[in-house]
Amino acid sequence: xxxxxxxxxxxxxxxxxxxxxxxxxxxxxxxxxxxxxxxxxxxxxxxxxxxxxxxxxxxxxxxxxxxxxxxxxxxxxxxxxxxxxxxxxxxxxxxxxxxxxxxxxxxxxxxxxxxxxxxxxxxxxxxxxxxxxxxxxxxxxxxxxxxxxxxxxxxxxxxxxxxxxxxxxxxxxxxxxxxxxxxxxxxxxxxxxxxxxxxxxxxxxxxxxxxxxxxxxxxxxxxxxxxxxxxxxxxxxxxxxxxxxxxxxxxxxxxxxxxxxxxxxxxxxxxxxxxxxxxxxxxxxxxxxxxxxxxxxxxxxxxxxxxxxxxxxxxxxxxxxxxxxxxxxxxxxxxxxxxxxxxxxxxxxxxxxxxxxxxxxxxxxxxxxxxxxxxxxxxxxxxxxxxxxxxxxxxxxxxxxxxxxxxxxxxxxxxxxxxxxxxxxxxxxxxxxxxxxxxxxxxxxxxxxxxxxxxxxxxxxxxxxxxxxxxxxxxxxxxxxxxxxxxxxxxxxxxxxxxxxxxxxxxxxxxxxxxxxxxxxxxxxxxxxxxxxxxxxxxxxxxxxxxxxxxxxxxxxxxxxxxxxxxxxxxxxxxxxxxxxxxxxxxxxxxxxxxxxxxxxxxxxxxxxxxxxxxxxxxxxxxxxxxxxxxxxxxxxxxxxxxxxxxxxxxxxxxxxxxxxxxxxxxxxxxxxxxxxxxxxxxxxxxxxxxxxxxxxxxxxxxxxxxxxxxxxxxxxxxxxxxxxxxxxxxxxxxxxxxxxxxxxxxxxxxxxxxxxxxxxxxxxxxxxxxxxxxxxxxxxxxxxxxxxxxxxxxxxxxxxxxxxxxxxxxxxxxx
Length: 816
Description:
Oligomer: single chain
CATH topology of the domain at 125-154 and 186-285: Alpha-Beta Plaits
Shape: extended
Helix content: 55-70%
Low-confidence stretches: 1-10, 165-179, 669-691
Mean pLDDT: 87
Number of helices: 23
Structural class: alpha+beta
């Protein structure tokens, strides 16, 4: 099984045959060799310098250089994102010299930083002048009313201070009045803008700090302005504060700084105000023109970068990955060659050797690289060649555990059994068509959608589009068997086999229907729907069907364990694990499945619960009415004894045989395989063949005891677990019936377009939200559990590790 050296067979059943290879590469051709192997994508390098830190490795400087170029590219991408641009995929591919690219990236970064710096300075100046213009306009309106009010208060204070010269309450004039009471007070003022959300707090603290000896006037700006400091749009108020004295001025300045209020000078003279406004407006127009030109230049530069960005980014990632891989290679003692070790598929031998020869020729090396296959006891990585259809099913299996090297791969069977078990629980061909249409949208647009950034849930659905397609197709099939189209039965394959006893059908609900024509050719007869016996009949049919499916799948798992043991030459597992397991399972639940089929075929009224219970409690009693075939009593006793004999058969011989084999190995009496591991001789673990460890019989026996108990109890619990197929199928069918009968038909009973429209909207919403989303997820998870636990635990070890070849194809998927 697997691929030969002449080419791969795309066999999913077992991992491709792998080999450990040593490459001895001359230093002058090392770079090209790694590059060509990366293009090939079929060689997994082992790290031969694991004990060294990244900084101690040979090519640390080159990796640092690549990381610096990657940083510059990330900076360009951030700038493009801020500018609303996206990298353009360039169709042309040209060889770019990395040295020239490094220089070009440095120059572009410097130019872009300079443009950004200039734009920030110009934008800051533009925002400041815009605020200044608003202050000049609004403060001019405030100034005259505020000034007249202050003058009136000042005259009152002067009159008051003339009569009461000794008083201490005139704090606003304390500096000037102590010098010369008759001298006119000179008021100062400060104007600017403060954030509207801080204006009330600013006013209160200003009042407290100056003991009320200021006059504050504010004007609300209708539109938000761009703050020069933060660059964000902020709603602000223009303020003007009148004060007296240097102490008050200092306090006001500190408060302005504390509240982030921007201060701007203001002239009392009207002529000067108009002159300054005119100058500011002219300056703003010039800055606007300059900013537009700067942004246009920046946009052109980013577009130029964007056109080449994907190619540059790939080249830098490729360069970094090559040197990272070279750091995993070991320098030989002559320092003229690099030694590499790694795994590759056997079929890729010729392709790898061709790549090595091409690298030697292209680098003009006089010495060719040496390809040497190593013999090893280490377990190789697991490698399955998948395509876009099978990869999603392989991921379902790998989520449980990666297959051990060359053990049977469950995904071969999962491709069919997983969507089938899902469909058993989701059987409605109307819902199946809806799922199929949704997944066909993903499939037909997969090229476009694969290059887009999708949301988490959409990405999950898109990656599993072929799984959902298979689930939908199988759901249509089981829906036709259940004869349910959004819970409505249809006579697709002919008329019903049942009819009324007379033309009036008055006794149909009491005496029932009679068979008037041949049996309905495919699926469930539509007349069962809505009848009194519908639920008992469907319950019985689906429960028995679930047991049949479960026993069949568990038998499949045990049979696969036989092929695993045969493939690895493990006779102990064949005779003392596979044989007793198949006997035990089929003596009990295989027999139950046989009884179900016989009862269906004969129409017998036998009680299968009674048969199975008394098969254990009193196997020698007569069966009476529960006898389904001749010799059933003797057959049951034989099966019961076989099941009882299978338990010690599983438990006792295997540990003793393993002990005997261990003793024979180290006495030199036998070269046969000595343990029950599933490793073939050529990949047997190193420790087994070289370390003479003591055989822990008690440990092996306890392990076998646990395994036996787990299988015996699991045979019962796993069979019961398959009854979830019946339960979820019934739940899905009943929910669909409730939505149809109690929502759609109920709304259709009203002679009103509004009521019918509301009913239709509620029905569609419930169908999509509950049946097509929640029920799909529920059935998916239950099918997943049946595969992981009930099916795979019969044969699947799943303790291997994946084959991760060095490949440039995966670089585009990894965002640094």
